[in-house]
Design goal:
By secondary structure, the chain is of the alpha+beta class. It has one domain: minor pseudopilin epsh fold, CATH 3.55.40.10. 32% of the residues lie in helices and 26% in strands. It has one helix and eight strands, in the order H-E-E-E-E-E-E-E-E. It has a four-stranded antiparallel sheet with strand order 3-2-1-5, covered by helices on one side. Strands 4-6-7-8 form a four-stranded antiparallel sheet, with helices on one face. Strand 7 and strand 8 form a beta hairpin. It is elongated.
């Protein structure tokens, strides 16, 4: 019985030491997951725009539940986003807890794609995905270039 108590005590000490060191790993995983979801959404919207001859848009979702507070800016995409073709919702991406998603261009609550998979407004688009934990520097930039190229740059707020 004494040996069992010693083993349990050692496991408790190791768990207490490992817990705080896992926080940065979880943060990086959440940011990477949200950035990959945004990248996959843009790629899907581009393929649908090419397939349907344009008229495909991606818009930030507006809050409908208590888990996502009302964003104060059109640049705030933390509540998720929706792909639609004017009449039909094609794909919905839910919010990711512990992560903020911001349209760095502050160009609006949505963007549309041409039949070539490019932005209808031209130019480029940058989304910054960052951890919401106080003092955290974990972030990633998801960029849609003028020609429709999608890039992700870990640890950055721009794609320069």
């Amino acid at each position: 019985m004494l040996e069992l108590m010693v083993v349990v005590a050692i496991l408790a000490i190791l768990a207490a030491l490992a817990g705080p060191s896992m926080v940065p790993v979880i943060e990086r995983w959440r940011v990477r997951q949200a950035a990959e979801e945004m990248t996959a959404t843009i790629a899907y919207a581009r393929s649908e725009a090419v397939k349907q001859g344009g008229n495909v848009s991606v818009a930030r979702s507006t809050p409908g539940t208590a888990q996502c507070a009302l964003p104060t800016s059109v640049a705030d995409w933390r509540c998720g986003w929706t792909v639609f073709d004017g009449t039909n919702v094609l794909r919905v991406s839910p919010p990711t807890n512990g992560v903020s998603v911001t349209n760095a261009n502050a160009s609006g609550a949505s963007f549309a794609l041409t039949r070539w998979g490019e932005l209808t407004a031209g130019g480029s688009l940058v989304f910054v995905v960052a951890s919401t934990r106080s003092g955290s520097t974990v972030k990633s930039a998801v960029c849609l270039g003028g020609g429709g190229r999608i890039r992700t740059k870990a640890g950055a707020s721009t794609c320069d």
